[in-house]
Design brief:
This protein has about 350 residues and is of the alpha/beta class. The chain is built from 14 helices and 9 strands. About 45% of the residues lie in helices and about 15% in strands. This is AB hydrolase-1 domain-containing protein.
């Protein structure tokens, strides 16, 4: 989903706070936050939110991620695939032929940078890393009517072709990105070597909603939370996404995030969600043959853990299921070190053992 919660930066609210605090008298300082007087809490929050109206923390954070990707060795590239479809992808500044290729595919929420920033530096030393924005996220879009994950998969493969990568791809997808990664492995099996699916409810069925598997009671309710347009809905999303969500986030920060990240292509993103659910049956899901690692948060409330076990049963011995303890749906934000540990074990360690002399 989105990277609001981290150990070193639990949410956007804390960006720039020290500098702001130094400009205030001690009695008004955020250094003593939270104050015990509820009127002081309201006053300080209102003062801070007034500042936010003049300065977007979300936009600034987005710029920081761009700089981070660039420093790590990636560059931004936009490709016109024709038929009104444009795909944006972060690509290596230099593609090294001796390295394998790794494609990181994001889920719903912010663009790809927000979801994969913590993983670029440790992965780029071992892989040619490609990070696409899926259609209707970031700078990718289509004017056509297609909204299926199959079409998303086709577009990712086509943009990889445009950059000269036609085989030997390893794919990691989180949440909705895993739906796309799964379809890439099914539709282009000769091009995909390994697959990692993180909290990916690809085995869900339309009837699961009616039978009470999910916290929400209808697809429309799910859409209102997954595509939040109010601070209250954003709080609901955070509560469902994290095992231990941040409790105090002023509405001004949430509204800023919504304004920057959640208002573009709203109808198109809604259509993507509807396409995932409509007429979905497990019997129609092809079995992928590539070695597959399934990673799930123990307390995932968006795609419950039962879907992870269902996917393991569907794929059989070809897949391994790993459960991350005390984690919700947003494992990339909540447990990045544990997630990387499993990625390393599945994707990197076998490469080390395969080197001559090992």
């Amino acid at each position: 989903m989105f990277c609001y919660q981290k150990k070193r930066n639990k949410c956007l609210i804390f960006i720039g706070l020290p500098a702001f605090a130094k400009q205030q008298p001690p009695t008004n300082s955020f250094n003593s936050f939270p104050p015990t007087n509820p009127h002081r809490i309201l006053e300080q929050t209102n003062n801070f939110c007034s500042m936010v109206k003049c300065f977007s923390f979300t936009a600034t954070r987005d710029s920081c991620f761009r700089c981070s990707f660039s420093r790590a060795g990636l560059r931004s590239s936009t490709t016109d695939l024709g038929d009104g479809t444009v795909m944006h992808v972060w690509i290596p500044k230099l593609h090294v032929q001796s390295k394998p290729t790794l494609v990181l595919i994001h889920g719903f929420g912010a663009n790809a940078m927000w979801q994969w920033n913590d993983f670029i530096s440790p992965l780029i030393s071992r892989f040619n890393v490609y990070v696409p924005d899926l259609l209707f996220f970031g700078e990718s879009y289509t004017t056509g009517p297609e909204r299926s994950e199959q079409f998303q998969a086709e577009c990712v493969v086509r943009v990889m072709e445009a950059h000269g990568v036609v085989s030997g791809m390893n794919v990691v997808g989180i949440s909705y990105g895993g739906f796309v990664g799964y379809r890439m492995a099914a539709q282009f099996k000769e091009r995909i070597e390994k697959v990692v699916l993180c909290c990916t409810g690809v085995c869900l069925e339309e009837k699961d909603m009616e039978e009470g598997m999910f916290k929400v009671k209808s697809v429309d309710e799910a859409v209102s939370i997954l595509l939040p347009q109010t601070s209250d809905k954003m709080r609901e999303l955070m509560k469902l996404s994290f095992s231990k969500p941040t409790q105090r986030v002023p509405s001004c920060f949430l509204n800023d995030f919504i304004h920057v990240m959640c208002t573009e292509y709203l109808q198109e993103r809604k259509d993507l969600i509807l396409a995932l659910h409509k007429d979905r049956r497990l019997s129609d899901l092809p079995k992928i043959t590539q070695p597959t690692l399934i990673i799930w948060g123990e307390h995932d409330q968006i795609f419950p853990l039962e879907l992870g076990h269902r996917l393991k049963r569907h794929l059989g011995d070809n897949a391994e299921l790993v459960i991350i303890k005390n984690a919700g749906h947003a494992i990339n934000a909540e447990k990045p070190k544990e997630l990387f540990k499993h990625l390393k074990s599945f994707l990197i360690d076998p490469l080390s053992r395969a080197k001559p002399g090992n």
